[in-house]
Request: fold
Amino acid sequence: MAGPTEASLNVVGATSASGVAPLTTSAGPRGKGAIWPDESVQFADPLTGHPVRRITSHVSIHHHPFFFVPCFDRQMKRLIFVSHRTGRAQLFAEDRPTRQLIQLTDRDDLAEWSIHPSADGRSVFFTAGTGAWQLDLDTLRETQLAEFGNVAMREKGMVGAAMGTTALSHDDRWWAVPVRAGPVTRFHLIDTQKGGSAVILERDTIGHPQFHPDDTELIFFAGPLTNRIWCTSRDGGRVWNPYPRRDRLQWITHEMWIPGTRELSFVDWPRGMRALNVDTGAVRWLTRFPAWHAAIAPDGRHAVCDSTVPDRGIHLIDLATGAATPLCSPNSSNAGSHWAAPFPYNDGPVEVYAPQHTHPHPRFSPDGRCVVYTSDAGGHAQIYECPLCEMSAPP
Reply:
């Protein structure tokens, strides 16, 4: 890993064991550059027998970014995640060659679901307090790119727009950040190269924005839960609703672009996954398997999903046939009883208890050779990866 030398960093004791080892309670030093040696554990999944590696082992909350946000850079030099092991949420990285865990921030105001690693491996973008920040992964220097003033930043709650996720274009040039300001959400667009922030539109709610993986001019964002799928041009000059919700029973959620197409995948909960062409409005079924959070593979041919009520484990889905194949069984607590009921939001907001670190949120690596997920099956949320060497997944 480039940046601070090992001699300049703090090191704490490692955890090593065969089998599913117990967690460690060592708090260790705090601060930028602190290192925890490899604490990973290898085991066979009890349901499928596939190999699994638990990446983190400290008795505290850990999670990777939300399922449609990459946790790796394109070259997979680092895996970026959040750890609470110092007593509050901080950015960490696993250096892939050494498996050392390196603390990247030392803040008391990190918005932990806002993080977005750059594809080139040089930066992580995040919001903290009422500002937008860029972390240089070589020097660990933090640069403030925008200050939003006296604002709430996020809506109240634990789900959807309340998480505060952000979007980065595939060329790392443009960063889109929803900011809650009074009764509206302002969609800020930040130029990461030249600097500057502009509000491209205001809406009643803006959640889970995503740049198209091939087109920096196209952004998806989630609107109200009763009419969720919206798109905008990068300058906000065109805003449209390519798929209005069909009826009061339909529950649309967990969208993600399909690379190489103009289609947006979404979960039609709990009936399966569908694909929407945002230009024509054409919709087709991808699978009837009850996918929950469903991430699309880099080649656009497969999806990986978790499941709930009931929890059937993580599955790989062949998007050509709709067939679902079990991969592993996270056995996470999947907090959120509202998922077991019909669509609950027709008559307005509903307060739900659904801490996101209790959900697996599986995600493909950039090379398509492994799946990363989170599970609190051991009592504290940890990060895991499952290789796909023997599965019918992207090469």
